[in-house]
Specification:
Elements (H helix, E strand, L loop, with lengths): L1 E4 L2 E8 L2 E10 L23 E2 L10 H12 L12 H7 L4
Parallel strand pairs: 1-4
Antiparallel strand pairs: 1-2, 2-3
Length: about 100
């Protein structure tokens, strides 16, 4: 995730919901698009880069993301679209928002 602090931003690694700290600071995010290159291997299924507004590093997981995580721990990912839920919730659960 990246955290905006004034005119610059910090990029943080989050693993399993835990902030591993800033690995890059003073990123000039207002000067243009922010791009990241991520090299993954093994069973990695998804990588997301999200912006966290303000200085909320100790509050990484929102209630929404905790609920999504809990649901996805209890059902197979392939079963998301067969749930009796509105399409927007299914999209949110499958990260297609």
């Amino acid at each position: 995730m990246y955290v905006v602090q004034g005119n610059a931003a910090q990029m943080h690694f989050i693993f399993n919901g835990e902030d591993q700290g800033a690995y890059s600071v003073d990123i000039p995010y207002q000067e243009g698009a922010l791009y990241a290159v991520v090299d993954v291997y093994g069973t990695t299924k998804q990588v997301r880069i999200v912006q966290l507004y303000g200085d909320h590093l100790n509050k990484v997981a929102s209630l929404q993301s905790v609920c999504r995580h809990t649901i996805l721990q209890r059902i197979p990912f392939s079963a998301v679209f067969s749930l009796p839920l509105p399409q927007k919730l299914k999209d949110y659960l499958s990260y297609e928002i």
